[in-house]
Amino acid sequence: MTTKTDVLRLYKQLLTTAKKFDNYNFREYSKRKIVDSFKEHKTVDENQITKFYNNGIDELSRLIRQTAVSRMYTFDKLIIEPLKKHHH
Questions:
Q1: Residue 76 DSSP class
Q2: Using CA atoms, how far apart are residues 20 and 2, in angstroms rounded to an integer?
Q3: Could you report the per-residue pLDDT of 16-38, keeping only the tens digit for each?
Q4: Residue 84 lies in a domain
Q5: 63 CB contacts (<8 Å, ≥6 apart)?
Q6: What is the pLDDT of residues 56-75, one digit of tens each?
Q7: What's the CA angle centered on 48, arms 45 and 54, to 5 degrees?
């Protein structure tokens, strides 16, 4: 049986992995899709939680592969992306 802790851990892992996209558009789309999906399925009954959890695990493995490929190719930063600050 899938517990609330398992679901929250998966949610955190998905968001953490999505933040690893080098491309701003992929990163923001993934984060938004994850948040929206979890909000949409917030009230599912206990019988469906395991099904959605397993789908989430599959999505996590896909996301890990996609972020690895994303990091192989570099893109110029977009204007809307904050530049990393250098500490002196």
A1: P
A2: 26
A3: 999 999 888 899 999 999 999 99
A4: no
A5: 14, 17, 18, 30
A6: 999 999 999 999 998 887 76
A7: 140
The alpha-helical segments, DSSP class H, found in 19-88 are 24-40, 46-72
Q: Does the reported pTM lie above 0.90?
A: no
Residues 6+ apart with CB under 8 A from 29: none
Residue 49 token pair: 């939680």
How many domains does the structure of the chain reveal?
1
Residue 1 corresponds to which tokens in the numbers above? Answer: 């049986």
What whole-number distance in Å separates Cα of residue 47 and Cα of residue 74? 43
Task: Give the residue numbers spanning the domain of 20.
Answer: 4-72
